[in-house]
Amino acid sequence: MMNFRLMLAVFFASASAWFCAAAQENPVKLSYKVNADKSVTFNFDKTDPGFYTVVLKFDQLTNTADPGNRKFEARGYSGTLTTLTPTNKDQGIGFSYSYSSIRGKLNPKYNSAFVYTLPAKNGAKMRAVESSFVNATYFGNTTPEDWKVYRFSTKEEDTVTAIRKGVVVEVKDLYDSDLVDGIAYTSKTNDLIVEHADGTLANYRGLKKGSFAVKVGQTVYPGTALGVNSKSNGGNVYGVSILLMYLKSADFESVRNKTMATTKSLYGFITPHFCIDGNADAILTSQQEYTVSYLPEVIKKEFTKKELKQQVK
After folding, report:
1. Closest Cα partner for 223 from 293, 282, 278, 144?
2. pLDDT (tens digit, 9 = 90+) per residue, 114-136?
3. CB 3.0 to 4.6 Å from 198: which of 26, 87, 110, 144, for a disulfide?
4. 228: Cβ–Cβ under 8 A, 6 or more apart, which residues?
5. pTM of this prediction?
6. How many whole angstroms separate alpha carbon 196 and alpha carbon 272?
């Protein structure tokens, strides 16, 4: 049977705010195998170990029960999504299909009060500024009710560190810093995405080209050096933007053929709590300067027993 592969990727682009939807090459590749018992197994291969949600759409399906829930989790570099079993075991299954995929575990259970570290070395000072939603600012869209993005800036170039334990699932190291005066927004930023154990994602944007200190598949911890912050948009400070998000919908039809003015996010956004000097559980105030504080109970709360033993040595 002929099969048709379709992918709709949703990703973010911002220095001061972001959200856009576009098509690109699918990072998840599906294939199928007809087994000796005439069942059909659908397998996946992909380019990073993180979660993807895959939606299978069967345009034709005969001699098998409808699989019902056609949303599947793909985690790791390869694996099996599902197997179709023939109703009449003497005949093969007839099918044609398409599929869509998006980064993230659909509707993960997460703790909204989880405490993160600030993205800099212990004792460093940085200013936190809330960023606006680019589609509302420039394209007439509506800002999501849960939208929250902070840009953290320092007066001098400095190291950007991980705010929580997780696995690096994406690195984009392509662009020189944009130092052109008068530019309010650019999507040409170097990005890094870390997936956390609860399925949430931290998107670090605005790292200096060539400064990345980690690679895809690597486990990072609070305080792990990720790269170096950079100037952007003609500014005179160095910064990095951080967006905490989770996949709340895999309704690809709702964003298909939408414009920047009408598209809606398939992701939900998290207002993070941070550990700062003098407060182990703070929600940041925009335009305020904070001192980074590494409290052991925050740094090590997701460590395994083996990792804790290694810290003692």
Report:
1. 293
2. 999 999 999 999 999 998 766 55
3. 110
4. 157, 158, 159, 160, 207, 208, 211
5. 0.87
6. 14
